[in-house]
Specification:
The chain is mainly β. It has a single domain, classed as YVTN repeat-like/Quinoprotein amine dehydrogenase (Methylamine Dehydrogenase, Chain H). It has 1 helix and 31 strands. The strands form 7 sheets. Strands 8-9-10-11-14-15 form a 6-stranded antiparallel sheet, with no helix packed on it. A hairpin with a 3-residue loop joins strand 12 and strand 13. The two termini are 35 Å apart. The N terminus is likely disordered.
Length: 397
């Protein structure tokens, strides 16, 4: 019964989303190079130590009778990769899937929730949470429908993807955050889009938008944006699937390779993953990779591999990628994979390349090897009750 309940939620995430002029956050709002540190200017820009105890934040979206719940918990990930049982709990909105975005210093977390609102919270030095906004969607209460969030390097603003159609408010919105309290301020829409699923900033001041349309244009699935993030415009695009009824699912940008999954159950075409090379333009690969229900993806920090959660397939797949192509696709050797969902990865320190994947009543640890592969490190199990089912996940940078 637990498995059936989770599948229904994990494969229907609702509209997916990812930007605004910085508000009065106590800082200039300007970002840029601060010298040879590689750290942007901003009140939440400086990363914490690369090797330290990190917070892992999970939603637990069911109560003891299987009814909707809005419980969240902080777990602790030690420097050796050991994951604790759920500790401090707090209340935001409900999230059955998704990723918690963290400011670069790890002090502020923002997560899209199933009703399109944002949950906003802070973590102190002891990893204790404080709720800033349990369910926020702008001053009007419904100014956007959030599906994904990406932080600016300054940590003072983030970009929210609204997955609606363009004529219904779909696009990328900017939200600024107060430097002391973390309180959000809606700056406004940066670019309009249709059925957006994700946005990925790229080196050199651009970004890739995964969407069915952008700035009034259609006929493609991936859009290269110039002038990111303050004045984005479409500079190139690519059609990734050669059929019209694909539903954009999980995606990832690994180095110069963009992967996007089709999760449609009604098209009559096998689910698959499309690839494209991102550079001065976007060039779609001629061949797609058949893969059941590519619900979520996370890229290795080395840019050579992507871990794909096949929700209906009860499997994890490792795709080796390079130069805009999928080189190999292998099912991860991992016993007992059950309804894998959202995932995150650590990009710094001794745990670099460690991915955390939400499963039915557990979190699985998977280690990228830096050579296009990955290995299963086992699960941290939470029990067998409805309250043991996790949903959204995030880990401090």
């Amino acid at each position: 019964m637990l498995s059936l309940l989770f599948v229904a939620c994990a494969t229907d995430p609702g509209p997916d989303t990812h930007t605004a002029q910085p508000g009065d956050t106590g800082d200039s709002g300007e970002t840029g190079d601060t010298g040879d540190t590689g750290v942007a200017d901003g009140c939440r820009a400086t990363p914490a130590a690369a090797d330290r105890e990190r917070a892992v934040v999970l939603s637990f979206p069911y109560d003891g009778r299987g009814r909707p719940a809005d419980t969240w918990a902080v777990l602790r990930l030690d420097v050796d990769g050991g994951l604790s049982a759920p500790g401090d709990t707090f209340t935001l909105g409900r999230a059955t899937s998704g990723v918690v975005a963290f400011a670069p210093d790890g002090s502020l977390g923002v997560v899209p929730q199933e009703d399109g609102t944002l949950g906003v919270f802070t973590l102190d030095a002891e990893l204790a949470p404080t709720v800033v906004e349990a369910a926020w969607a702008g001053p009007g209460g419904a100014d956007f429908y959030a599906g994904a969030v990406v932080f600016d390097p300054s940590g003072e603003r983030a970009f929210v993807v609204d997955g609606n159609w363009e004529n219904n408010g779909g696009g990328i919105y900017e939200v600024a955050f107060d430097c002391e309290s973390g309180a959000p301020t809606l700056v406004g829409q940066r670019i309009a889009s249709k059925l957006a699923a994700a946005v990925y900033p790229t080196a050199g001041g651009g970004a890739v938008l995964v969407a069915a349309g952008a700035a009034g244009q259609e006929g493609a699935d991936a859009w290269l944006l110039a002038g990111w993030p303050d004045a984005p415009t479409v500079s190139a695009s690519a059609a990734l699937f050669d059929y019209e009824d694909a539903i954009l699912g999980g995606s990832a940008l690994a180095g110069d390779t963009l992967l996007v999954g089709d999760t449609s159950m009604f098209s009559g075409t096998d689910n698959r993953v499309a690839a494209a090379r991102v550079g001065d333009g976007i060039e779609a690969a001629a061949k797609t990779t058949v893969l059941e229900d590519p619900f979520a993806m996370v890229a290795s920090p080395d840019g050579d591999a992507v871990l794909v959660s096949s929700g209906f397939g009860d499997a994890l797949w490792v795709l080796e990628v390079a130069d805009g192509l999928v080189r190999t696709a292998d099912e991860l050797d991992a016993p007992g994979v059950a309804l894998p969902g959202s995932s995150v990865v650590i990009a710094r320190g001794g745990l670099r390349g460690l991915a955390l994947v939400v499963e039915n009543v557990a979190v699985r640890r998977v280690q990228f090897d830096g050579e296009g592969g990955a290995a299963d490190l086992g699960t941290t199990d939470f029990g067998d009750a409805y309250t043991s089912i996790p949903g959204a996940v995030g880990v401090q940078p």
